[in-house]
Amino acid sequence: MDIAVVGLGLIGGSLLRALAVAGHTVYGYDADPATRATARTAAAQAPTGQRWQVPGTLADTVRRPDGRAADLVAVAVPLPAVGGVFDALGGLGYAGLVTDVTSVKAPVRGLATKLDRFVGGHPMAGREVSGFGAAEPDLFHGCAWVLCLEPDTAMADWLATAALLTGLGARVVPATADEHDRAVAAISHVPHLVAAAVAALAGTDLLAATLAAGSFRDGTRVAASAPALTAAMCGGNAAFVREVLDLVVADLTAARAALDSADPIAALVPWLTPGANARRAWPPRGGDPVQVPVTAEVLLRIGRAGGWITAVDVDRREVTAVRPA
Amino acid sequence: MDIAVVGLGLIGGSLLRALAVAGHTVYGYDADPATRATARTAAAQAPTGQRWQVPGTLADTVRRPDGRAADLVAVAVPLPAVGGVFDALGGLGYAGLVTDVTSVKAPVRGLATKLDRFVGGHPMAGREVSGFGAAEPDLFHGCAWVLCLEPDTAMADWLATAALLTGLGARVVPATADEHDRAVAAISHVPHLVAAAVAALAGTDLLAATLAAGSFRDGTRVAASAPALTAAMCGGNAAFVREVLDLVVADLTAARAALDSADPIAALVPWLTPGANARRAWPPRGGDPVQVPVTAEVLLRIGRAGGWITAVDVDRREVTAVRPA
User: Fold this and answer.
1) Are A44 and A54 within 8 A, CB to CB?
2) Could you say which of A18, A23, A107, B116 is the most buried, measured as most Cβ atoms within 10 Å of its Cβ?
3) Is A195 an 8 Å CB contact of chain B?
């Protein structure tokens, strides 16, 4: 495929490299001239046979000199910049397929209504580092990559995008934007809030900070993230973060009741067991792959069951699906 | 010193080995004959000059053939077994100094009223492994080791124990039993409850479990612990766990209010900042060591300030103290 990647940070840069390794023709663009220069230098040093270029404008990134448009534009800019890129693509007359990599999907779905063809995505491939310099072509090997499937998503577009991403080694997870946003509230956004609340205890009790060891270190690691970034992440998904936070507070209130009971130890065991079982069962191990003729409902059921797609046969509209064992 | 270690699990076994390496005469005992046999084999293979023995009875562990008693008995058995060991020491007529390594200090203080001389202790040296086979002589290098200092603690006993432990490389932290129990509620017990509540979310949302990555993995690691052990730990410290859990729930309720506000992102930044600052300042780095003539109040102030003791001059009743930089 002929693909344009807009935004060359960790995710966009890694996508650019991964697509080039997979044999696609790739054009990359970043609004920052210094990032473009770095990416251009890397392109010049890429192994023979890897075709990626870094034009100086968005127009030259999404459209070739002969007027042909890219088959796909992957938008890999931070959420606040996504609307501007979508507008710019419209202004350039780009009517092809667009995908994105943003960590919250319902707001992007709202912005994408102005596009002709859109499939929202989110690779669960965050790292402690950022920027094109940290980009790696194998970042997406084995990585869960949510691809959103809504009532108005064209199945041909979804399958084409899924085929591309499984070709990079990603485990493609079908979900609606709302299902995705609730899930990441549970496994990322609310854990950031909880970590901040626990870490704050060590700020007011210096004896506690000195005694803290492994459980504190791991349990609060993400609390060291920049407050502005965590606030943007949680605030940008406020409805689902609220819903999940209420569940956690209700659960902790039940733990408080167990501590108040006549036999706190006996009362805490059943309270602790669901979390222990869930954590011991994680990460889910996949069962045997099966070939599935797809409809939107079949794909969404696979995602809801914790399953993923490892390969796509676009012509036969069949996928290879793995469900947790 | 001539020291008896009762209980040869990870902590007791490591203490036995560390004391032998430091040149002390050490006798070890475990109620389990198989553990005694393992420890005896290890003793036979210990380098020349390390003197440790594993008698077949508690009596022979705390008293020598000539009738002399050990200078110190370190009780390293789980909390439910501590009272029985204290009773047995009384039954043997042992009237010397006793210390322990149990992870909750107020209940042990209650049990120790039947002993003549007692200094409660707790090394913050937990690991994922257990048993004598996992014991390491350098487990306590740099480890924070709380030594309890109560109004009825004999300063000479406290200093003798502190001198012994700093000799093993431990950072000795003076605290009352209540101060210790509140601190460990904050940095260990409540974090276990919070991890269980977050981990449970992935048990009811299989899509979320499949999308979970680093923040979930680290934030919920301790949720995989055996529910019976976590329940015993939290339930055995119920009063302080309740107090700290209430703080965390109140803090998360404030986060909920921030999410409800007109501008959730702006409201979350100041809510997140104390936790981010506390986590970034952790672990505390020590300032320059200073020599301090000690009283109980001076030592407790060092502990409350997040400081620790690195050396003890028993004769001059002076300690080398380090406070966070």
Assistant:
1) no
2) A18
3) yes
Instruction: Judge if A165 and A16 occupy the same domain.
Output: yes
Both A270 and A314 in one domain: the answer is no
**DSSP strands (E only) in A54-96:** 72-75
Sign, Cα dihedral of A301, A324, B209, A117: negative
- A31-48 in b/e burial notation, b at 16+ Cβ within 10 A? eeeebbebbbebbeeeee
What ipTM does this complex have? 0.95
Query: Would you call B234 and A264 a contact, using CB atoms and an 8 Å cutoff?
Result: yes
CA-based nearest distance A276→chain B, Å: 5
| Average pLDDT of every residue of chain A | 96
Beta bridge partners of A155: none
Instruction: Report if residue B174 sits inside a domain.
Output: no
Alpha-carbon distances, residue B133 vs A215, B8, B17, B136 (angstroms): 23, 10, 12, 9
CA–centroid distance for B129 within its chain: 16
Supply φ then ψ for residue A243, to 5 degrees. Answer: -60, -45
Evaluate whether residue A285 is within a structural domain.
Answer: no
Q: Which of A198, A196, A200 lies closest to A233 in space, CA to CA?
A: A196
Helix axes A190-204, B190-204, angle to 10 degrees: 180
Report the gap between the CA of A107 and the closest CA in chain B (Å): 15
Question: How confident is the model over A114-160, as pLDDT tens digits?
Answer: 999 999 999 998 766 789 999 999 999 999 999 999 999 999 999 99
Give this prediction's pTM.
Answer: 0.92
CA–CA min distance B153, chain A (Å): 20
Please name which of A245, A123, A116 lies closest in space to residue A180, comparing C-alpha atoms.
A123
What CATH number is associated with residue A79? 3.40.50.720
Residue B56's domain comprises 2-139
Nearest to B197 among A241, A259, A275 (CB): A275
The two tokens of residue B205 are 């949302």
Q: Are A314 and A160 in contact (CB under 8 A)?
A: yes
Mean pLDDT of A162-168: 98
Chosen for mutation from B182, B198, B216, B259 (greatest number of chain A CBs closer than 10 Å) is B198
Q: Is A55 left (phi over 0), alpha (psi -120 to 50) or beta?
A: beta
The mean of the pLDDT values for chain B is: 96
In B, residues 14-43, which contact A (CB 8 Å cutoff)? Answer: none
CA atoms within 13 A on the CB side of A86: 23
Could you tell me which residues are beta bridge partners of residue B53?
Answer: B27
Residue A77 clears pLDDT 90, i.e. is over it: yes
Hey, are the CB atoms on A284 and B235 less than 8 Å from each other? no
Cα gap A117→A125, rounded to integer Å: 25
Q: Does B238 contact A259 at a Cβ distance shorter than 8 Å?
A: yes
- Determine, for residues B279 and A223 on separate chains, whether the beta-carbon distance falls below 8 Å: yes
